[in-house]
Specification:
Length: 138
């Protein structure tokens, strides 16, 4: 089992995670290469966090359920961190994937829960800091 670790905080660095449905990329790109492809896709498209179709696919529903859980995790941060909620996590979204940036102090608490949520919803999780891919159980 992969052991989660957030690197030491230096300046304004952040901790990133890529979460996607396996159907978002070909089987051979469920890795760093795929993460980079998704990053380029976000920059080229106007991605939102909302599924616009009236009948979202199973993959889109999994991503939306994951997104909703993560928002609940952020909302559950202790009261002393309330003012930091709005900037502690940044989503770059698409109906089939989320690229997430976390402030390191928040990542220590939230990243393991985010990864657990992704796994529960059958999503791929990529940690670019450690170059670790966690594939959903089949």
């Amino acid at each position: 089992m992969w052991e989660f670790s957030v690197p030491p905080h230096k300046g304004d660095e952040h901790f990133d995670l890529g979460i996607w449905h396996p159907s978002a990329l070909p089987a051979g790109q469920q890795n760093q290469e795929g993460y980079l492809v998704l990053g380029r896709r976000v920059e080229e498209e106007d991605c939102t966090c909302e599924v616009e179709e009236s009948h979202p696919s199973e993959a889109e529903e999994a991503i939306q359920a994951f997104h909703d859980e993560v928002i609940a995790l952020v909302d559950a941060l202790p009261d002393e961190e309330v003012s930091s909620r709005s900037w502690s996590i940044v989503f770059r979204c698409h109906p089939l994937f989320h690229l997430i940036s976390l402030w390191p102090t928040v990542a220590i608490e939230l990243a393991p829960a985010i990864m657990d949520s992704a796994t529960r919803h059958g999503l791929v999780c990529y940690d670019p800091q450690n170059d670790v891919v966690t594939l959903p159980q089949t």
